[in-house]
Amino acid sequence: MISKVGVIKDTIQEAFPDSEIHYVEKKFKLHKFRIDRAGLPSCWLYFTYEYILNHIEKDIIYRLLNSKVFDIFHNTNKPKWFAIGNYGVKEVDDSYGRS
User: Fold this and answer.
1) 79 FRET partner, CA 20 to 30 A, in 6, 20, 37, 95?
2) Is the pTM for the entire model greater than 0.85?
3) DSSP letters of 57-93?
4) Around Cβ 83, how many Cβ atoms within 10 Å?
5) Closest by Cα among 23, 15, 19 to 36
6) Cβ 93 vs Cβ 84: under 8 Å
7) pLDDT, tens digit, for every residue of 54-91?
């Protein structure tokens, strides 16, 4: 599981080289990544625990890159939250990661 999280974090960092990427695990619920973009509001990307557990790194990165989440984050000056799970990719709000 740790290597999968590392690959995700590295992929996010490659997409946002001038940003700080922070990771927190909400045990058995969510893997939370906060992207602190230089001069812009932060964006959050959440992965469900089950999704990371049940998929190989290649599939996780494929879903992430093909979801267009990075494009959305790059093209907004507002905070955004997205969740990725067995249900697909969906935009959520700031309360999603707190529940």
Assistant:
1) 6
2) yes
3) HHHHHHHHHHTTHHHHHHT-SS--EEEEETTEEEEE-
4) 21
5) 19
6) no
7) 999 999 999 999 999 999 999 999 999 999 999 999 99
Q: Are strands 81-85 and 88-92 parallel, antiparallel or unpaired?
A: antiparallel
In the block, tokens 């959305």 appear at: 72
Q: Are 45 and 68 in contact (CB under 8 A)?
A: no
CA distance 24 to 60: 18
Question: Which pLDDT band holds residue 99 (cuts at 50, 70, 90)?
Answer: low
Segment 32-49, tens digit of pLDDT: 999 999 899 999 999 999
Size of the chain, expressed as the number of residues it contains = 99
Cα–Cα distance, 18 to 1 (Å, whole number):
26
